[in-house]
């Protein structure tokens, strides 16, 4: 940070109250130390797409479905079932077993029909889940953009009141934090409002007033912060600081976007995909997995002897499919479950620190921009429009 910027920062004490201010002095820098701290703090949620598109993908496991314990438990259960059925039938194998079971092509056709139906249902379910996930991400962006727009419009010609300008980004960050805190709340935890107070995102007076307005509903409290900002915009307009009704409407529109972001996220979190559809889909997937495991175990027994003798390639192909198909379908179900609530604090969920730093840094940049303008703006005298030159 330059000496001029450092001196300007002294005029903005309210920005230094943020708990993430230690990161703000270097956030966005490209040096190795800063990059390491960003990743250690969980600020960066990016990953190397090029690495995943090469053979190195086999070395990636962190934050993927491969670290899900439930996935491996179900895979192990299906594996035990496969080998138990295979061992028992191989031991008790009756005469003419191949004729009793039928040909392998018929079994494959039956399983292919079932797998195709499950695949279509899973594809629709996945598309719906990811669509909801993306809409919640856009709602977070609405909250971010609302704070940025308000700070930009107010700091560049309306007011340089540092309390107001700092409160805008603080309230935006607090409303977003309350959403994360509500999703991650567990019995015995400190209430989300009190957590926001501890982090310096809210003052004690603000917490008391929010509790007085609504003592328990966190999303309503997050909305109310934007109502406070709407009242502040109305007071600026009443004082004559806003440049007319169109300007006032733009300010209120930005506030409404922030409030709407909170309500949209609440709508998606409070209204999951209908239980009947999810239950039927999961039931069919589990039934499919059991049928695949049992039928392919019987097929492996048929390929392990009889008139044509042992066929090792066929046995390997059958055993691989018996493990791979249940693993794949269970993995897709788990991935859909993970994106249902992207604020829950899992490895694959949204990172609050990233949004928090982004909002605060953008607000800081907008406020300081007025004192750090290029010369073509500060010394230039703009000419009025003189009409078409044609």
Question: Nutshell version of this structure?
Answer:
This protein has 390 residues and is an all-alpha fold.
Question: Can you characterise this structure?
Answer:
- It contains 16 helices and no strands.
- Among the domains are: about 70-100 and about 275-340, no CATH class; about 135-270 and about 345-370, no CATH class.
- With about 400 residues, the chain is mainly α.
- The two termini are about 45 Å apart.
Layout: helices, strands, pairs:
Layout: H1 3-9, H2 21-24, H3 32-40, H4 49-52, H5 69-91, H6 97-101, H7 104-155, H8 162-183, H9 192-198, H10 204-213, H11 218-238, H12 244-270, H13 275-302, H14 312-338, H15 352-369, H16 375-378
Helix pairs in contact: 5-13, 5-14, 7-8, 7-12, 7-13, 7-14, 7-15, 8-9, 8-11, 8-12, 8-15, 11-12, 13-14
Give keywords:
single chain; about 400 residues; mainly alpha; elongated; disordered N terminus
Question: Which structural category do the helix and sheet elements fall into?
Answer: mainly alpha
Give a short account of the largest sheet: none
Strand content: under 5%
Net shape: elongated
The secondary-structure element order is HHHHHHHHHHHHHHHH
Number of strands: 0
| Distance between the first and last residues' Cα | 47 Å
- Overall pLDDT: 83
Q: Which regions have little confidence, pLDDT < 50, spanning 5+ residues?
A: 1-31
Radius of gyration: 30 Å
Number of helices: 16
Work out the helicity level. 55-70%
């Amino acid at each position: 940070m330059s000496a001029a910027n450092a001196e300007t920062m002294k005029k903005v004490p309210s920005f230094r109250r943020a708990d993430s201010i230690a990161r703000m002095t270097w956030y966005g820098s490209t040096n190795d130390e800063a990059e390491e701290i960003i990743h250690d703090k969980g600020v960066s949620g990016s990953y190397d797409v090029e690495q995943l598109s090469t053979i190195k993908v086999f070395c990636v496991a962190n934050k993927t479905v491969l670290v899900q314990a439930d996935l491996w438990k179900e895979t192990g259960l299906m594996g035990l079932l496969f080998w138990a059925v295979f061992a028992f039938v191989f031991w008790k194998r009756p005469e003419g077993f191949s004729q009793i079971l039928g040909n392998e092509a018929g079994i494959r056709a039956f399983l292919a029909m079932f797998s195709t139906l499950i695949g279509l249902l899973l594809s629709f379910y996945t598309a719906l889940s990811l669509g909801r996930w993306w809409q919640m991400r856009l709602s977070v962006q609405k909250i971010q953009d609302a704070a940025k727009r308000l700070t930009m419009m107010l700091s560049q010609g309306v007011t340089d009141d540092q309390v107001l300008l700092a409160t805008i980004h603080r309230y935006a960050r607090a409303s977003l934090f309350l959403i994360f805190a509500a999703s991650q709340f567990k019995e015995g935890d400190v209430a989300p409002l009190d957590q926001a107070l501890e982090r310096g995102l809210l003052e004690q007076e603000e917490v008391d007033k929010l509790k007085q307005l609504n003592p328990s509903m966190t999303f309503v409290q997050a909305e109310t912060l934007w109502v406070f900002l709407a009242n502040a915009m109305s007071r600026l307009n009443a004082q004559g600081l806003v440049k007319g009704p169109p300007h006032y409407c733009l300010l209120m529109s930005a506030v409404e976007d922030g409030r709407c972001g909170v309500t949209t996220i609440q709508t998606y979190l409070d209204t999951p995909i209908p239980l009947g559809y999810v239950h039927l889909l999961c039931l069919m997937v589990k039934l499919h997995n059991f049928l695949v495991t049992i039928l392919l175990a019987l097929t492996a027994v048929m390929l392990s002897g009889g008139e044509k003798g042992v066929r090792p390639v066929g046995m390997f192909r059958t055993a691989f499919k018996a493990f791979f198909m249940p693993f794949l379908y269970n993995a897709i179900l788990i991935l859909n479950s993970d994106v249902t609530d992207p604020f829950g604090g899992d490895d694959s969920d949204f990172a609050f620190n990233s949004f928090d730093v982004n909002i605060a840094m953008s607000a800081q940049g907008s406020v300081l921009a007025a004192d750090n303008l290029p010369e073509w703006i500060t010394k230039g005298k703009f000419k009025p429009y003189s009409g078409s030159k044609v």
